[in-house]
Sequence to fold (560 residues):
Amino acid sequence: MSAIDVRNLSKHYGDLQANDDLTFTVDEGEVFGYLGPNGAGKTTTIRTLMGFQSPTSGTATLLGHDVRDESELIAAKRHVGFLPSDPAFDETVTGRRILDLHASLKGDSRREELLADFDPPLDRPVREYSSGNVQKLGIVQAFMHDPDLVVLDEPTSGLDPLMQQRFNELVRAERDAGTTVFFSSHVLSEVRRVCDRVAILRGGELVATESIEDLLDRSGKFVRARVGSAVDVAAVDVPGVHDVEASRSDGETDLTFTFTGDVSDLVAWLGTLDLHDVSVEEAPLEDVFARFYGGEV
Amino acid sequence: MFELARYDAEKRVRGAAVLSGGIVALVAMYAWIWPNIESSTVDFDQYIEAFPPALREMFGIRSLGTIEGYLATELYAFVWVLLLGLYFAYAGAGLVASDVERGRMDVLLAMPVSRARVVTEKLLALAVPLLAVNVVTPAAVYVSVVALGESIAVADLVAVHALSVPYLLACAGIGLLASVGASRVSVAQRAAMGVVFGLFLVESVAASTDYSWLGTLSPSRYYEPANVLVDSQYDVGGALALLAGAVALFLAGVWWFRRSDVA
Fold:
């Protein structure tokens, strides 16, 4: 049985096709990244999977339970953890009271263990929480009942780098323990650290479902080089170079391009130049979309 | 079961205490004024007779010459029928829409609970203010009446509160329906209070005319505190009608919420 099975799922809001004929499967025990730029329809899919809205057509199952049937979905939800993007809790009550409510409805076998790493000020009312503390509370409630499947919508937004790192460790530990994790993001670098496979959504349509290695190989690097001489765009002829741009000032040339070829070739070619500065970064997700799937993001 | 109701009820304790305290203060104020009215040389009943029938109906004015009539007019017709009716419509309107608007409903519905259960338990939590005002107020009224050296039939006092429960539930039901239907809580609250107030006005104005049937749908038609306190007439049929209306509104709200997309 797959943890999530989406079949020809569409969700339209009037004329807007927020999700159009999506089909993909998330296997048990994998960390699955649901990637796409803002507005691609990631949250729409998640809200349909969680039963907050019904699909216009098509279907989906969570842990084998049809999401269109409320009683089936409730059975699934006993074993599902959920963290919405921008989670919201009652402002007037304390974090502890909120966790107590969650515990009474779904259990809290892992609450203390999670609170050791994610520690919002539990005895203060939520209205005094920073967005990072709200996110920590959200993470604890999502994992506290030791779910088999966790659905996370943009989980690391609002977390500082240390907390992001702890979160990534949590996700890896969960995978090792056999939990399925489905999470959406618009940041490729965030997804690559923890995901096994990704689905890429654009304009409500699924454009690719592949392993993270394949995606990174294809997405390439973003290279910026400052050279102490005049270099023409045409001179950048290493195989795997795309979208070269050059600008000159004070006898230097700023070169930028995306590179998907063999890194050794790139380094060898860079070695022939009078380099003043060079940086090689992961290509931004938007560029990945533009490159491989054509058109505007 | 009832975890959500308990959680919501706890959150309502403070508001219920403030509401009850405010009403007790009003009762004290009315009690303080009463000796002046009673000993006044002005014939209030004659003065009332001069009112247009619609106005008498609107404020439930029967007689200001007795403590029962005075309370029915000043406290029950105004505070109970109008203010508390609006309060429960307002509270009902917040039940679903406020969580949806703030994004809290997602976290709630992600738990293994049905939508029907969420609505039902949220509505149940309104029992806190409902019981608080209906226990505290009659006690305050009784103490005040005795302190003034007057007397009031305890059965009538109990009945006027007991019969108000279906009335207030019907108002909350109107609020609940608005809460499920509106995407924003402020819209739901305005709609619910507008409907309750509008129906109250229509019923009051039309009652003494040939068009009294216009008030059929108004909850205020079925709860007349003056009849209970002054005449000891208990409109049990009206209370049952209100209860049936409240249940129908509740079921409609649940049905609607079950089939809507939570935005």
